[in-house]
Structures are given as structure tokens and as C-alpha cells.
């Protein structure tokens, strides 16, 4: 795919992970480190598990970054990507085609909150769910005037509880949910997970550096799992210089 295939305002980025590329529109929204570490977190669990993971779904996929990285890091046979915003959905479709992944990744243009009603056949059919929901509660924080950024960052039609409810409905028994969010929402996350019977099993805090407080969390939950939460070692984004990525993050980016 050549640059002249791009729509107005879009750019084509080489993101690594083999020779993967991604169409993005900076004016609207570009993926960040949270999407990359979530994909790596889920991939590591898949590779280390004795269970066989074959089918995954990503909720709120944006331009498809998490499914595309998952396709590189794992042997998942089928990954479904769900996105509500039409422009992001269109870019996700083109990104799948660009990276020649149409046989493994399919993209659905739908609101997460409507999945059970519009696509009931998906219920209970996935081994793995990944979710990078909007971090801001509805009405919380400064509202961005750009509608694409507002929907990506603020809860609109589907809030945190809805993401967890739908994840539980989509998972098979003992299927696993992997989510990235803010530490300030940890109580809300655990409360909703218990309510919908996806038990938190592993929690990892992520900090900008060793001197900073965590500003991201990664959580792994198991549908109908037994109550036991394991705290993983923290992940640091930058080293002591606060300019260069840590060795672990470089390894995650495969650099």
C-alpha cells in the first residue's frame, strides 16, 4: 500500500513488530504505549499458559493496533476487533488489509454496549478479551472538542462496567480478560469484575519511571476463576535518564 492510498490527514507509520505498519490520523487519535503493553501482557499470558487460546476479541480497537500486535506475538487463529467510530473502523479495516491479516483479523463496526443484542452468536465464544476502555468517567475531566478524541478518552455509550459486563458475556468458561486502565479506577474495576464473575488474578502497575507513582495498570481476570490476586512486579517506561525506554519496554517493542 503506497502513501497515495492514505486519506487526507493520515500518515503511514512503521511500528516494528516484524514489518507491521499502521495508518493513523494524528488529528483524531494515535495509539500509545498503553495499547502496546496491553498487547504484550495478553500475549505473554497466552504463550505461557497450558490452555490453548485460539479465538480473541478486542473491544474498542481504534485503528486495530492491539489485534495487529497480537497476530504477530501469538498464534491466535482468529481475532475480532470491535470499533464504534466509523473513521477508526475504516482505518482498522485498511490496516488489516495493509498487513495482509484478513484471514486472521475481522473488524466489526458496532457499539460495545450493543454487541449482545446485535451479535448474540458471539456470546461465550472467545478464549480471550482485550480491552482498552476510555479512561475518563462520563462527564469527568476536561472534555475534548474533537469528537474522535472525546469518544476515545471519555466514557460515552459504554462505560467501564459495560466493558466488563460484555467481556464476561463474550468469554467462555475460564476465558481470560486483559485490560489496561488507570489506578484510580481499580476499585471500580474489581467491583465490576466480581459482579460479572470475571475474577481478578494478576495486577501490574505501570509507572513513567522508578521515582513516579503508577499512572497505568494492567489486569488479568478469569471468568469463573477462584479468588486469588497476584501482584506482579511493576513496569517502568523510562530508565533513570527519564528519556530512554527501559530494557523491558524495549524488549516489549522488540527493539
UniProtKB/TrEMBL annotation:
It comes from Aminipila luticellarii. One of its GO terms (molecular function) is methyltransferase activity. Residues 50-182 form the Methyltransferase small domain. GO terms for biological process: methylation. The keyword Methyltransferase applies. The lineage of its organism: Bacteria, Bacillati, Bacillota, Clostridia, Peptostreptococcales. Keywords: Methyltransferase, Transferase. Pfam families: MTS (PF05175). This is tRNA1(Val) (Adenine(37)-N6)-methyltransferase. InterPro entries: SAM-dependent_MTases_sf, Small_mtfrase_dom, tRNA_Adenine-N(6)_MTase.
Amino acid at each position: 500500500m503506497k502513501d497515495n492510498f492514505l486519506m487526507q490527514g493520515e500518515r503511514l507509520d512503521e511500528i516494528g513488530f516484524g514489518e507491521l505498519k499502521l495508518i493513523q490520523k494524528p488529528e483524531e487519535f494515535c495509539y500509545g504505549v498503553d495499547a502496546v503493553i496491553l498487547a504484550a501482557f495478553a500475549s505473554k499470558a497466552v504463550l505461557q499458559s497450558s490452555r490453548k487460546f485460539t479465538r480473541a476479541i478486542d473491544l474498542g480497537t481504534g485503528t486495530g493496533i492491539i489485534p495487529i500486535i497480537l497476530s504477530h506475538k501469538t498464534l491466535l487463529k482468529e481475532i475480532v476487533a470491535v470499533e464504534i467510530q466509523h473513521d477508526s473502523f475504516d482505518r482498522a479495516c485498511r490496516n488489516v488489509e495493509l498487513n495482509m491479516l484478513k484471514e486472521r483479523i475481522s473488524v466489526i463496526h458496532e457499539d460495545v454496549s450493543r454487541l449482545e443484542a446485535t451479535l448474540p452468536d458471539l456470546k461465550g465464544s472467545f478464549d480471550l478479551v482485550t480491552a482498552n476502555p476510555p479512561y475518563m468517567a462520563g462527564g469527568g475531566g476536561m472534555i475534548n472538542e474533537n469528537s474522535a478524541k472525546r469518544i476515545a478518552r471519555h466514557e460515552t455509550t459504554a462505560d467501564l462496567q459495560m466493558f466488563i459486563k460484555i467481556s464476561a458475556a463474550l468469554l467462555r468458561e475460564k476465558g481470560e480478560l486483559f485490560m489496561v486502565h488507570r489506578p484510580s479506577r481499580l476499585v471500580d474495576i474489581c467491583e465490576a469484575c466480581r459482579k460479572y464473575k470475571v475474577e481478578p488474578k494478576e495486577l501490574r502497575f505501570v509507572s513513567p519511571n522508578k521515582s513516579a507513582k503508577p499512572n497505568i495498570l494492567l489486569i488479568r481476570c478469569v471468568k469463573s476463576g477462584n479468588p486469588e490476586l497476584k501482584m506482579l512486579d511493576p513496569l517502568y517506561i523510562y530508565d533513570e535518564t527519564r528519556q530512554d525506554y527501559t530494557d523491558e519496554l524495549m524488549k516489549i517493542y522488540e527493539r
